[in-house]
Amino acid sequence: MRRFFLIMLFALFTIGITVYYFRVPLTLTIGKQILTEEQGLLECLEWSVDSWDRLAVERLCWRSEAVSVEISNATFDGDHFQVASMMVTHQHTQTDNTTEVVHSPAPLELDLPEGMPSFEVEALTVSSPLLAEPLNLSVMQKGDFAFAISGDVEADVTLSDTQLRAALKLSSPVIQTLLQQAELPVTVSELAGTLESTFDGQAVSMDILLSSLLVYPSAQCQPVVQVNGAISGQWDLTSSSGKLDLSQLPVEVNTAGCELLFAQVPKPWLDSLWSKQWQVRIAEPVTFNTQMVGLAKLSVHGVNEASSATLSELEYQVGGQQLRGKLRISHQSDELNQLDAQADFLLADTQLDSRGSAVIEVSQAPAEMPLDWQNLALQGQFSLAGNIAEQLTLHTTIQPQANSVSLKEIRLDNLSGTLSTSTVLAVTADNKSAEYTPFKQVKWELETQAERYQAGSIQGRSLALSGQGDVNGQLETTMKADIRVGSFKHDEFRGKDLNQHLAFTGQWQPEGPLGELTGSATIELLAHPQLVLRDVVLQSEGSVAGSEQLTLDHRLTLDNLELQLTHRLEAGLMPFTLTLAEHGLGALQPLASQFVPKLKIEQGLINAKVSGELTRQIFDFQLNVDDAAFLYEHHYVSELDLPVKGKWHAGELIIESSP
């Protein structure tokens, strides 16, 4: 019996020695048999008995299709698993997009075992194509299924039967690295706070405590955004919907120094409109699902409480690439009494449709402006539509009203009007018209009226101006204007019913306009205590070539009398010629009767010509009266020939002697 016992003991010992000696290949073989293809492949396992109660794992390698894990220098004593080094490598995998996997969210029920040994990894390296650099971490277990992660990521993770909780510090080095690599338009500094999330199998909840400064680097100004508050959010896996509550996240924007961007705005307006501190608020939660993101209201207020902007009813449809919303800008102050502009917009893919209106009321202009007014009110509407990648069309209508408007020596009282424009904008960079202008076509129409007006020493009532124009991308231009004056007065001169029409057809060039000018004017009455003219007609035509070349011909018709004036502007000089073609002397009878009532012109011919240069005040003139006959009371003169020739040079009148 004793001999049999010794033989069995020796056999068991021999088997034990053999199994231990071949422990590595045996363990690998068993592991490969136990693990399925979906569970991965055990590629290496080197272990030994370190002491009677502890195992040492020198190396363990496991690989699946997406992840490979390698553990080095680990020990296990039944209560604690200590890992000196662990490497986890994530790899891109090819997935079959034709196979749709449907997951039904369900409450988390893990049934975690009790008395699990503790776990610690001194050096964990995580590599992935999704990461610019590998993450260097360490993991320590603080309690049952509660772990503390430090290194590039600083976080706490807790797992229970029904929940997974994680708390991430935003000051983690990996967060700072990601922000630097993101190439954001702002510089993020002093980022601090925590991100806490909870997952229960059906929903993910998130709470963020955030503190940070954002600086927008610019050569002209550097606004600073300060964020300090809390964010909470939730994503429901059952309904595939969520919300984000930003109501407890106040955002302060410091724009000190940025007012220099608006140096052309009058200082009283700028001081009132522009605040050095702005506050951004989102009072209602942002809602979203797999098809839509919605924002009920985002408001921006200046700390002076005078200016505000609101973005509301913002909705983005993911599937249709559609964005819609409403924008409103408001301001109210003593300097700029009221500003209220609002617009609705819809962007579907690249098609934009936006419409809006604006109201501006300003009782008085700032002192530094050359233009002055009293109680100015502007009402306007606009629409902007088209393809944002090709062409947009902008329509505007502006209706101004003012008790008075004045500019230098010009003053208009009770002014009102309407200005309508239509602009086709060339958006594409390869559009040939963009070489000249950013638009393809601009059309405008103007209607304005003033109850009273004054221009220097001229004043009157009922002034109306109407006009229209068309400019294309090559700056080819057509403009027309009509001026109507009910009455006017200048010293002892007075008149009524002046109607004038002007037209220009040509092209705008860098050196100035190039084209043809036409015009006409009629005056029903032009009166002086010693002279009254009725039904005066003036016809004009000419051409313009640049800012210093102008040629115009005028034809003045008064009763049976016709005068023609030709003048030019070239090289700073203004040569002219005034011609009275040969007329019967009787054409002067209406004018002569007003000066000499008893004079009666019987017969005769008259012609005259004046030529010279206006800027230097140099004129030459000649007047010819042939075979004239006059009756003055009982005196009769006949066969009168009166040639007159002379000049005006250097302020001196010179009459040449008759032959």
Radius of gyration, CA atoms, in whole angstroms: 46 Å
Task: State the shape.
Answer: rod-shaped
Structural class, from secondary structure content? mainly beta
| Termini Cα gap | 177 Å
Largest sheet: 6 strands, antiparallel, barrel
Descriptive notes:
It is built from five helices and 37 strands. By secondary structure, the protein is mainly beta. Among the domains are: 1-34; 560-659. A six-stranded antiparallel β-barrel has the order 12-13-16-17-15-14. β12 (224-236) and β13 form a beta hairpin. The longest helix is centred in the first third of the chain and has 20 residues, at 2-21. Residues 3-7 and 9-24 have low confidence and may be disordered.
In short:
Among the domains are: 1-34; 560-659. The chain is rod-shaped and about 160 Å long. It has 659 residues and is mainly beta.
Keywords:
disordered N terminus; 64% strand; mainly beta; six-stranded antiparallel barrel; single chain; 659 residues; 8% helix
Helices and strands in order:
Blueprint: H1 2-21, H2 23-34, E1 41-51, E2 54-63, E3 67-76, E4 80-90, E5 118-127, E6 135-143, E7 146-151, E8 155-159, E9 164-169, H3 173-181, E10 187-199, E11 203-215, E12 224-236, E13 241-245, E14 251-254, H4 267-273, E15 277-281, E16 286-289, E17 292-302, E18 307-317, E19 322-331, E20 338-348, E21 351-364, E22 371-387, E23 391-407, E24 410-426, E25 439-455, E26 458-472, E27 476-490, E28 493-509, E29 512-528, E30 531-545, E31 549-558, E32 561-570, E33 575-584, H5 589-595, E34 599-613, E35 618-632, E36 635-649, E37 652-656
Parallel strand pairs: 4-5
Antiparallel strand pairs: 1-2, 2-3, 3-4, 5-6, 6-7, 7-8, 8-9, 9-10, 10-11, 11-12, 12-13, 12-14, 13-16, 14-15, 15-17, 16-17, 17-18, 18-19, 19-20, 20-21, 21-22, 22-23, 23-24, 24-25, 25-26, 26-27, 27-28, 28-29, 29-30, 30-31, 31-32, 32-33, 33-34, 34-35, 35-36, 36-37
